[in-house]
Amino acid sequence: MRIPRRQEWEFKGPRTVKSILEELRINPETVIVIRGDTLLTSDAVVEDTDEIEVRPALSGG
Amino acid sequence: MKCVKCRQPAVVEVRRHNAGFCREHFVEHVLRQVERTIDELHMLRRDDRILVAVSGGKDSLALWDILHRLGYRADGLHIHLGIGEYSSESTVKTRAFAESRGLTLHEVSVAEELGFGIEELSRRTRRIPCSACGTTKRHIFNRFAREHGYTVVATGHNLDDEAATLLGNILHWQTEYLGRQSAVMEATESGLVRKVKPLVRLAEREVAAYAVLQGIDYQVDECPMAVGATSHLYKEVLNRLEEVAPGTKHQFLWGFYERGRRHFPHEGRTLNACKVCGEPTTGEICAYCRLAERARAAAAGTR
What we know:
By secondary structure, chain A is α+β, with helices and mostly antiparallel strands.
């Protein structure tokens, strides 16, 4: 699927990365999930105040 | 999820290896995968002078970073494509990367070569942009490597890129391309420089993860001219299969390398020197010079 560029969503935390990607209907194989300067695995929990970036792996190159 | 090596919290999961990795061990995993590919396929020698094709995207910058870490002598060549802001941003990121690591970067501009960039080249010749761009880049990389004494050109093609190309070649039964599709293209006497793709064991997502974890500031935007390219659709289809059955992409591509390719014709093509530029070609005039000529003729016609 194609992810529209720089779209923003808001979710109530805490939630796992997996459930967020599922709700957005994003195949986890096609993205990396970034929080700060590190990455999150699918079981990682995102808190209410966290900001994360779901970046298509395809991008750049 | 915990790192399979040290039981610390994992930052990357690689489902086809059924493993999670912390930052340190993921970086180690990536380096080992690339080293293994280079060794198994006899891609590079320690005394090779390597020219890395660097676009400023994650794959090429990660490749350059990895080769440097593995101790190879690798310089970069960046081509200014002339695709608006996308290109100028890519150049800025490439330069910053080279500078931060003290690496040697060469630059060539398509506009200086042709009188116009890829956007105009594609429009004037009515060629699909990715196709015109590919022809141009292959020509420039080969010629530059030859003229400057590089023994091998390394590109950042990853597992997803090569699997998508393979799927496309099979869907259209491009038997000649199938006979040639490889992670190593040997040099020819006629002047084709050796080409290697050391990232073919790494999924696109792993390369992106590596780049972020190494703090590599790459061009995140997609090339505006590639939007809607069929290669993206092939990748999407393969990733849908990968989601259900991890390891599918690897089996597809590596199974082809190991057991499939030999069933397709692989005849050594006779290559001549292009009458215009001297680069190797199967015909009299190479694809790049024909493209350039068509673009110039179209320009003359519209005046």
